[in-house]
Structures are given as structure tokens and as C-alpha cells.
From TrEMBL:
CDD domains: thiolase (cd00751). PANTHER family: ACETYL-COA C-ACYLTRANSFERASE, BLR7806 PROTEIN. The keyword Transferase applies. This is Acetyl-CoA C-acetyltransferase. Its EC number is 2.3.1.9. It comes from Nocardioides immobilis. Residues 267-388 form the Thiolase C-terminal domain. Keywords: Acyltransferase, Transferase. The active site is at residues 91, 345, 375. Residues 7-258 form the Thiolase N-terminal domain. GO terms for molecular function: acetyl-CoA C-acetyltransferase activity. PROSITE patterns: THIOLASE_2. Belongs to the thiolase-like superfamily. Thiolase family.
């Protein structure tokens, strides 16, 4: 252990609820409070020693407004003096929460930080925050800014267009994407059946007294069913079958310094080996993980072969397939328990959901290094490399 090391003490998540499913009626503050409280219980750390609570969340309006990180901590019944902050790096928000937490620890200014995320996409539709200004007569999203138009021109900027552009540029067929999507569902169903998520899940007790214990999004599907779907754009290759699912969830990790590990008698499960974030062309938007991964490997002196497991968020099948082609990451090591196509992509919560699953799978398989990355709005991508301990 070294003084500037950031450790992952524990990581938990709720099961992911499908759109309109088990968690649809749960207030976002209560949803996040649930995983925070479980994290405190599992680690048995004094919550009063926590320096900060950092949660990722997008579309912070309605039940997600008012600094939901602070609210969630208080809803969990935890000490008033512990602050909280909510951050938005789009799909990478909670992965960035871990980065900020780790940086606080590595700088020596903090010792214990809760980092996680929450999103109730059933209650607050995706992009709601960007569109809400219309009812007040405000200008609509960033791509209508005069400065933006001067730099990038008047063209569509959307994740759907980006996914199509990527499929075309990397010559990824609809059939290839559908085969990838089918594998995601099959891997997720296998993981659930074998209980691979059991140690990371914290069931949520619903108002009727029943416990929500299992991810809802994986489907029984087939290539034939996928082939029958209409593309999202006329003549396009992208369909709903090869896109991540709208859903609801929360997730949380506890990041600690060596001093905190010693003082509280903690047994960390992993350490942060590397963290970085890079930007790419914002019109292409979803290509960020490619250069971000290459940058991370160059910074660490590692090769793709040094990584035992990868989590690359399945915003769309084309994103991960292009990333695998460019980096050489083998499919047998990528999203081995399924990804966002099968398990859903609860935007603000996905970063620490992926990290929680990555950590547990490294422990299950005995792997040493895991790399996580995800495409993010604005053409950005975070990369975290963790090293399993023990």
C-alpha cells in the first residue's frame, strides 16, 4: 500500500428495473439512498467519517433535482455534516464520480468518499433537462448555440446518428450487430441463472412488501425476431434490438485512502490502477472510448493483453464492435455477463454499475486487471483500470 493509492472497499447496486417496471415509481433520492445505506452497512464504516458523497445523475429535474447526492445521503438517515455533490458527464457520470473520489483520496485531501450514481428514466425521460426550457420559451439544446453552429454547422447531433455513422465507417453490418446483441442477452441470462450478480445486488423492498431481487431487462429473443424490427432511421442499420434499454437503478462504491483502510480496519477489494478521460469529435459523439482506451494503455505502459476483463458500455452494438476492432479487445473478455443491450443503461448509475460487476467478475474468475470505458455525450470517454486485491 502507498499513501497516494485509492482503494475500492466495496461496491453495490440495485437490480436494474426495466422502463415502467419494478423501480419506476421509486423516488430517485430513495433509490440512491438504498444503495448508500447498504454500502455503509456492508463496510461497517463510521458514516460520520465520510468526507463527501459524489453521485452521477443526468436530467437533474423533478425528483432528481436539488443535488440528489446530498438528498440521498440524508434520506438514508446518515449524518447531517457529510456533504454531497451531483455531477453530470452524461453516460459516464458515475464513472467520473469514482474518478473524482479517487483523485480526492490520491491528493491527500480526503480519506473516505462514497461515489455512485442514480437514474430513474421511467420518471424522468432521457434528455428531459435539455427540452424542458422550451415550455419557458428558452432556446433548445446546445447544437442550436450560435457558437456551436459556427464551429460545427447546422447538422443533426444525436446518439442515433452517431451509432449509424459508426456502423457505416467501420463496416459493421446489421447482422453483426444483432449477433452481438443476442450474445449480450444470452450472457446476461446465464449470469443471472448462475447467480453471478448475487454478491453485488442489494434487493429493493417495494411498497407492497415484495423484494425486487433480479435484473428485469434481459429478454428471450432470437436473430429472427431482431431481423423483423424496423430500423430507427429509414434505410439504417440501427434498431431498438441493438441499442441499450431505458431503465432505472442506483449503484455506489466506497473509495478509501490507505490511512482510512488502516484506521477503520477495512479490507479493500481493489485499487485504482489508472484513471483518465478524453474527448473526441462531438458530432461523432460515441467514438470516444477508442482513443481514450489507447491513451490509457499508453499512459500505463500496458497492452490490451494485460487486461483480464473489459466493460465497454453497450450504448449501441456498433460502439462496442468498432471499439473492439480498433483496440483488439477480444469479445470473450468483453462484457462477459452481458451489457447495456441486455441489462439496461440507467445513465447516471451505469458507470458504477459496470464497475461493481467488473470487480465481482474479476474476483469470480481470478483476474487481476479490469478496464472499464464508456461513450459519453459530447464525444467523451472515461477509462478506469482497476487491480483486484487478495
Amino acid at each position: 500500500m502507498t499513501a497516494n493509492t485509492a482503494y475500492i472497499v466495496d461496491a453495490v447496486r440495485t437490480p436494474v428495473g426495466k422502463r415502467g417496471g419494478a423501480l419506476a415509481g421509486v423516488h430517485s433520492a430513495d433509490l440512491a439512498a438504498h444503495t448508500i445505506a447498504a454500502l455503509m452497512d456492508r463496510t461497517a464504516v463510521d458514516p460520520g467519517a465520510v468526507d463527501d458523497v459524489i453521485l452521477g445523475c443526468c436530467d437533474t429535474i423533478g425528483s432528481q433535482a436539488g443535488d440528489v447526492a446530498r438528498t440521498a445521503w440524508l434520506v438514508a438517515g446518515l449524518p447531517d455534516h457529510v456533504p454531497g455533490v451531483t455531477i453530470d458527464r452524461q453516460c459516464g457520470s458515475s464513472q467520473q464520480a469514482v474518478h473524482f473520489a479517487a483523485q480526492g483520496v490520491m491528493s491527500g485531501t480526503q480519506d473516505l468518499v462514497v461515489a455512485g450514481g442514480v437514474q430513474n428514466m421511467s420518471a424522468i425521460p432521457i434528455s428531459a433537462a435539455m427540452l424542458v426550457g422550451q415550455q419557458y420559451g428558452f432556446s433548445t439544446p446546445f447544437a442550436e448555440s450560435p457558437g456551436w453552429l459556427k464551429r460545427y454547422g447546422d447538422q443533426e447531433v444525436s446518439q442515433f446518428r452517431s451509432a449509424e455513422m459508426i456502423a457505416e465507417k467501420w463496416d459493421i453490418s446489421r447482422e453483426e450487430m444483432e449477433a452481438f446483441a443476442l450474445a449480450s442477452h444470452e450472457r446476461a441470462r446465464t449470469a443471472i441463472a448462475e447467480g453471478r450478480f448475487a454478491t453485488e445486488l442489494v434487493p429493493y423492498v417495494l411498497p407492497d412488501g415484495t423484494a425486487f431481487t433480479t435484473d428485469q431487462c434481459p429478454r428471450e429473443t432470437s436473430l429472427e425476431k431482431m431481423a423483423g424490427l424496423e430500423p430507427l432511421a429509414p434505410g439504417g442499420r440501427i434498431t431498438a434490438a441493438v441499442a441499450s434499454q431505458i431503465c432505472d437503478a442506483s449503484s455506489a462504491t466506497l473509495i478509501a485512502s490507505e490511512a482510512a483502510v488502516q484506521a477503520h480496519g477495512l479490507n479493500p477489494r481493489a485499487r485504482i490502477h489508472h484513471l483518465s478521460v478524453r474527448g473526441d469529435d462531438p458530432v461523432w459523439m460515441l467514438t470516444g472510448p477508442i482513443n481514450a482506451t489507447k491513451h490509457a494503455l499508453a499512459k500505463t505502459g500496458m497492452s490490451i493483453d494485460d487486461i483480464d476483463l473489459f466493460e465497454c458500455n453497450e450504448a449501441f452494438a456498433s460502439v462496442v464492435l468498432a471499439w473492439m476492432k480498433e483496440t483488439g479487445a477480444p469479445h470473450e473478455k468483453v462484457n462477459v455477463n452481458g451489457g447495456g443491450i441486455a441489462l439496461g443503461h440507467p445513465i447516471g448509475a451505469t458507470g458504477t454499475r459496470l464497475m461493481t460487476t467488473l470487480l465481482n467478475e474479476l474476483e469470480r474468475t481470478g483476474g487481476r486487471y479490469g478496464l472499464q470505458t464508456m461513450c459519453e455525450g459530447g464525444g467523451q470517454a472515461n477509462v478506469t483500470i482497476i487491480e483486484r486485491l487478495g
